[in-house]
Amino acid sequence: MTLEFHKLTVQVDRMGEYLASLETENEDKVELALQIMQAYGDEAFLPQILERVQDAVAKDAGYRGARPIDEPIVGIYPPAPLPETATVVATDGSQIPPDSHGAATYYLINTGTMTLHHGSGQPPEIASEPALFYESEYIQIDSGGSVTATTVAARRTVAEMAKLAEHGWLMRGEARPLVALLDNPLLLIGMGHEVPDREQLRRLYFSAMTRLMDIQAGLGGYTDRPRSRYVTGMLHLLDMDSGAVNRRTLSDDGRLEGLMDRAIFSQLLNPGERSALFVQMSPLNKDFKDQGGDTHEIAFFYLNTAGVEQFPTIARVEVPMWVARDRGLIAEMQALIFHQCQQTGSRYPYVLTRAHELAVVKYEEAQQLKLLIRISLTRHGIEASDSQKQAGKDSVSGKRSRFRVS
Known about the structure:
By secondary structure, this protein is an alpha+beta fold. The protein has helices at 9-39, 46-58, 136-139, 149-170, 198-214, 230-239, 261-268, 283-292, 321-324, 327-341, 350-359, 363-379, 388-397; strands spanning 66-68, 76-77, 86-96, 107-118, 125-133, 178-182, 218-224, 274-275, 278-280, 298-304, 314-320. 42% of the residues lie in helices and 17% in strands.
């Protein structure tokens, strides 16, 4: 049976009506957010803002908002002139998760890396590096079960950072600035207790970050269409009386509840402009600082990647503190990322688009790999068939057969 669209038309229309009402409500919240930002927008208010943030953290009130570094919270920064030459390295990854109904248990991590020699006239360098995992040490976990898709995704994230560091290191003697980009936040999300080797993965991740710091690379984590509310959380804090700050009052964003940061900066940033630099106040970022030192704490800024006279397209760019402290490097990264976004109709960095194309494993390729594995198993005298459940699913999703019932 196929999806019966005629039963969805009313629901789809109601969805459109609901989202339109949210948009109207959002406009009022954006206006309020801008009023709070302007009220605290002068640089002279920075010590007061920092004191409010430190007070919320000291009270263990569960504050998860932003903390300004040393720029006015309403600061707007145009891009620097585009560097004449630069080296831009970007890495992305994809995976084939383990299939418990397949002929064998395995998973694949594929990383794609593209290196651009900006301004040199040299062709870009590309690399795609697949790794197949099937040994017991990778497939089984201590509790006796099999590795989960969550664990594979965590290992893929670390593999991406490791490959970025590897290719960045190879480019350390090339034109500067050297910019290294990931299509991910830099904070290690998805590394909870369900990932059995999380501590080892964290060490590998920090080691790769440190390698990039040692060659003074401009490491950046790029998030398209961010749903974060870090600045909104800070504005909510500033909107309250200092005596009212506690875990309950910070459990939501009060009058700004539901407002995303990108809605605010869509009103503030012209094409190519960035916001002030902020730090996300979270236990995870504190762990980064504790494990890697002050240099590895993660900061961020928002960037409007849209072209002239286009609707704002807001991205969040995360950088480690060693990058955030070098405002000349930040300005060059801002200019290069914006330039890259103008190379594609989607206003997404071209170099990350190509890295994704190199990394992604198409359905047909995954099926070809499955066939190769079956052939290898058969060659070595091993039964190579999927479970009956999987065979049934394949028959339903593939070519239909007619069965006679007697």
